[in-house]
Amino acid sequence: MFSDKKIIAVSIPTGVGADIGGYAGDFGHIAREFSKYFHVIVNPNAVNGGILSAINYDMSYLEGYLFDELLKGNISIIPKKPYQTNKTGVIFDCEIPQNILNVHINTLNALKMVQGISSIVEYTSEPVGVEIRVENNISYGNLNNPSVLLQSAQNLIDKGAEAIAVVCYFKEDFEDINYSNGAGIDPIGGAEAIISHLITSKFKIPSAHAPAFLDVDISEKLENPKVSSEMISSTYLPCIMQGLSLAPKIVESNDKNALSYKDIDYLIVPYDATGSSAVLQSYKNNVKIIAVKNKTALNVTCKKLNIEPCYIFENYFECLEKLLTLNEV
Hints:
By secondary structure, the chain is of the alpha/beta class. It folds into 2 domains: 6-80 and 250-327, 3-Layer(aba) Sandwich (Rossmann fold), CATH 3.40.50; 88-248, Rossmann fold (3-Layer(aba) Sandwich). Helix content is 30%, strand content 23%. The protein contains 10 helices and 16 strands. It has a 6-stranded parallel sheet with strand order 5-2-1-14-15-16. The protein has a 4-stranded parallel sheet with strand order 8-7-11-12, with helices on both faces. The two termini are 18 Å apart. The mean pLDDT is 89.
């Protein structure tokens, strides 16, 4: 129905400094390697890389809230077939300065001309008011005016949008030296998760966020490879537009023509980040849990939760090798 491939889900939490997947699409090449042999359900931050994206038709691009809902059994999904794409709506925070907005509009036009990714645009009626903070190595965020995002999203859905991209104005650059050096956490990851969760929880439609900063200069310094994809573009919009164009359709959990948690063979998670509702519910639902020693700022292990994963691996390639042996792919 979806493909002849077995289905796996790979979760890398946003904003917790995952050593792999916590930066700028640095899990992307690994996701692509898995997708050669499996259909992979991934969260956006695992494959988003600024102007670059690792997404392909053998992946289902699923924002964190929807990812959790799928594993809980509350929704099902219909993955895109090759050459199918979504009509994507784009919400722009009205506070974005015109010169910065022009860069993003040029980006949308380029995506349409080069890749045929169509979009429809909506501007918020008032500023969204994004606030950022980092505490205990975890990034958080707050929205002063979330209702304007919901109204803009509704307007786009009424116009036929099948997925929603959001571009909010971040008045500061939030530069973090540790993150730039490939050793810290993404300082805006928590806020981005709140923005996308707001849309997906209300409308059950794929969504992702790209920040608009005051500074659009491209770095001339040699950067850490983990963050280099963010340094070669003045906008982060291309990766989410490419991801959302291939995002699956969200349907009711009882849809017999859709993919549900019962179709997922394995859920792969970082060893010390196993406390999410998706992991706990998957364990109850007998989805096989695989823990990979991908260090995060958390310290919530299977052992502490009395969860017995079916396998624990030192790295993702060791995990893939074992899965290929088990499944004779």
